[in-house]
Design goal:
Helix content: 10-25%
Mean pLDDT: 81
CATH architecture: 3-Layer(aba) Sandwich
Strand order of the largest sheet: 1-2-3-7-6-5-4
Strand content: 25-35%
Number of strands: 7
Structural class: alpha+beta
CATH topology: Protein Transport Mog1p, Chain A
Low-confidence stretches: 14-59
Radius of gyration: 22 Å
Shape: globular
Number of helices: 4
Largest sheet: 7 strands, antiparallel
Length: 223
């Protein structure tokens, strides 16, 4: 079989993955309280010893304190079915903070069929932060639909790209579980026919991997 040259879009995926910087969340103060009457101080007014940015004692606790090992989150059977020829152990992508974000990748070219699978875990500061991030991302990746029965909320979208007459179809599944996000990316190409796998195949494959990852996450629940 003659050597194959991957399209630029797929070659780019083989380069180191850029790690997203963790965004901070700013706390907003409420409206000013009315001026206190003589000899009385409202309970909401801070004392001189309190810091304006001190965390509230009623702040919601987080379910997940850290990201689980991503390369063990997808079963060997799932890897074999989605990425034929890939090593089931996968390869973890370097991260600047493995407590907050971890990613594992599997990819292989078997014959003329190429498949790539990424699974990422991202830990946010709270359920509310995860909800906001989830909504922002599904807005960016419009055109998909809800995935029922997975985590607290699930969403999937599939897109087709063509470069130098070579098609690549990629599916993305985003799942929120409490204060954690699970992100799965699955794509494929056929370098003989220049065609991409069907939408249904890619979508179901991405959802299958996402279900494995969510079970792995929930199995490592910290509280």
């Amino acid at each position: 079989m003659p050597p194959l040259s991957l399209p630029l879009a797929l070659t780019a995926r083989l380069s180191p993955v850029a790690v997203l910087a963790t965004a901070g969340w700013a706390l907003a103060s409420g409206p000013f309280a009315p001026a206190p009457t003589a000899g009385h101080q409202p309970a909401a007014q801070k004392t001189a010893t309190q810091s304006p940015s001190a965390p509230s004692s009623t702040a919601a606790s987080t379910t997940y304190a850290g990201a689980p090992a991503p390369c063990g989150s997808v079963t060997a059977a799932t890897v074999k079915s989605l990425v034929p020829g890939a090593k089931t152990a996968g390869k973890e992508i370097p991260s600047t903070d493995t407590k907050l974000r971890r990613t594992c990748s599997w990819n292989a070219l078997k014959g003329y069929d190429y498949r790539w699978l990424d699974v990422s875990f991202e830990i946010t500061a709270s359920d509310q932060a995860a909800q906001k991030e989830y909504k922002d991302r599904i807005t960016e990746k419009s055109g998909g639909g809800d995935v029922p029965g997975i985590g607290d909320a699930g969403y999937s979208v599939v897109n087709l790209t063509t470069e130098d007459k070579q098609q690549t179809r990629e599916g993305t599944v985003l799942v929120r579980v409490s204060n954690a996000l699970v992100v799965v990316t699955y794509n494929g190409s056929d370098f003989e026919t220049k065609k991409a796998p069907g939408t249904d195949e890619i979508n179901k494959g991405a959802i299958k991997a996402a279900k494995d990852a969510v079970r792995a996450l929930e199995g490592g629940r910290t509280s």
